[in-house]
From TrEMBL:
Pfam families: CBS, EAL, GGDEF, PAS_9. This is Diguanylate cyclase/phosphodiesterase with PAS/PAC sensor(S). The lineage of its organism: Bacteria, Pseudomonadati, Pseudomonadota, Betaproteobacteria, Neisseriales. The keyword Oxidoreductase does not apply. Residues 352-404 form the PAC domain. SUPFAM superfamilies: CBS-domain pair, EAL domain-like, Nucleotide cyclase, PYP-like sensor domain (PAS domain).
Amino acid sequence: MSPLLQPVDHILLPEILSCPPSTSVHEAARLMMVSHCGSIIVMDEAGTALGIWTETDALNLDFSATAGEDDTLVEQVMSSPVRTLQSGTSVHDATGFFRRHGIRHALVERDGVYLGLVSLTDIVLNQGTESFLGLKRLEDLGCRPACVLGAELGLKDAVKVMRQGAVDAVGVCFSDGELGILTRRDVVRLLAQGECDQALGAVCSRPMLTMAENASLLHARRLMLQHKIRHLGVCGADGGLKFILGFGDILHNIEHECLLELQGALNERDQALLLSRQSLLLADKVFESTLEGIAITDGYGIIQSVNPAFERITGYSARESIGKTPALLKSGKQPPEFYEHLWHSLKRDGVWQGEVINRRKNGLLYTEHLSITGIRGDNGEYAHYVAVFSDITQRKQAEERLHFLANHDALTGLPNRTLFLERLEAGVEQAREFGQRMALLFIDLDRFKLVNDTLGHHAGDELLVWIAEEMKKVAPPLAMVARLSGDEFTLLMPAVDSVQQVASRAQSVLDAIAGETVVAGQEVFVSASIGISMFPEDGASADVLLVNADTAMYRAKERGKSNFQFYTPDMNASALERLRLEYSLHKALAQDELEVWYQPKVELATGRLVGAEALIRWRHPELGLVSPARFIPIAEDSSLIVPIGEWVMKTACRQVREWRERQLFGGRVAVNVSGRQLKFAGVVELVERTLEECGLPSAALELEITESVAMDEDSGMVEVLHRLHELGVYLSIDDFGTGYSSLSYLKRLPVQGLKIDQSFVADLHQNRDDAAITQAIISIARSLGLGLVAEGVELDEQRRYLVEQGCDTGQGYLFSRPLPAAEFEALLERQYLAWD
């Protein structure tokens, strides 16, 4: 469900902070401070809400009167009535309710029973607006300029300014130019502590956390959540403070109509994000429950502040601790000399750490690990000390958890590369010592990138978790399954008896993970390639075994994927050949070894040539013509595809312009564009520059883009395609039907044509499934008004079927193989004479 459409029941805080109407404002403020709440509900004895007192209401108090303890009751200053939402109200409707009534908190009830409290902060945290927030710049928010007060002013002066200006926070300027911040929550805290008569410099938070105005709203929200703050300073280009950003500003700038429209297309992804967020919040709560206790003292050791963990561990509340010294916790187990040494170290070095036996409020002893750090004031003397401590038991648990995270993959829970390499080296030593054989299986998923590119990274993560579970099921006893990185897994099998045993286990792995499965609600086909190395035959060390297993895995991929290969020495020779080929490819452009060939696109009904596809060929001085299947993957991996692609486009455009001037060619020339070019190479500027330099009209150029790249909406592909479309270039999707395309997304792409992949055309005359898929693609193209080209047409039966189904254009060996430019030109001249 979309975060905007979920009921407020899912995000409310079930524990309602409340107090009777006879409570003093000081006590109400203390309760809010301890509970970290921005409001408190005033209830009668029957549990009925009479009113609400918030941080905003606190600004209306007479702080000159509250500097000491007075008898103001919360019922005298509360806001009434309390606004109430019904259970089941959506987050979207709740947001409108907050805006209409100008409130920040509301009770949620069902059948007259209060379920909890929902606040403005809850809504901001659960909006699911990352896409919008990532596009919004802070400088475009239109927030009011920051109000900055001098540090020497009193708190009551700041409260007056905040009340009159209706602002959540003000900046505090110190004489050295440093900025602090005072918020409404600080006012409540100070009211609770009875510290209302101090200067701003003594009570504000400093320094103020800031960021540049050209940052995104999403970055700002993440920073606020990371530091657990609700306000953030925003600086201009000159470094000066422009305004203070609060959660209220974030909510105000969320465009709900745009978000609701996006939710329809991203519903499944939002559900995954919601589940992930809930998991993170749960993990965060668990982590908070094991946080160390913290006590802050002044330079004389008088406690000024403690955190909730301090209260939980020691049993002493903040009220009982503040104003006293840490001697409150003394157990008598340490001699006086211990504390003399402690203070001597603090005065000399400013730090001390060690173990201390202390006593809780209930009288029980506990051992804590304590670290104390001194903080110097402006005069260079230690003005404060920060003591951080935890139970030894909690620390050991935390260390064990950290050790697990350092050695295991966070997504799948499997051992990671670090732990795997340790076990592999230990396994090699053990096998050598006892004369045993050991097998290493290197597993790499086939076409995993396609799943990530088309369904998103969350779907990819879901698939990886499923693969990990399946591999653990088929792993033999004492074996180790690990995830090295991405879609790479390993299976380490100690003490194997035979190669046949290893082969059988490799096949079991393939059988377990190969086939159709459902990921993010979409059926996908999964397969894997496995490389196997054996100890001691294929290597005497862990590094050699891993490299050889990886090499064997690549050989398995080369042989059709979804299979396993044992390592053989000649595989290293193959890897060296690939390196040599890559080195030669680097020189191919400079030495004019590359050529552009052209394959005709014809009208299927008449055979008349109507266009052409430009194809790259490499004429190696020693190897002759090198198959594109050999060097294109190398070009992709080494980023050479960008300069090669640019050269192909310019060469094809110049050649076509020449043929057009001689009236030999009137159609379009199609050029393949790789995903790397589209994402990183400024392809729009390249196309515009090439057309201008070659004097070729944009309508004469067609760009073929693979389906998986076109559907990659996370990379800004839609914007790039729209810009190309505005140039007048014809855009078509190559290999259509081979990926996991979304038809709803296809409708929004500015493409004019589809290309039916040859894998469907090859058997459509004798395979019902291929015929049905081809017919469906033709139907889709018709309904969307798109042009069609069928590739790989080799038989007249295929041609006739395509014509009958309404596909007008095709290419393939039935008409012509790809031809060098001179031979293609001769073909054009023959057609010109034939059709003249």
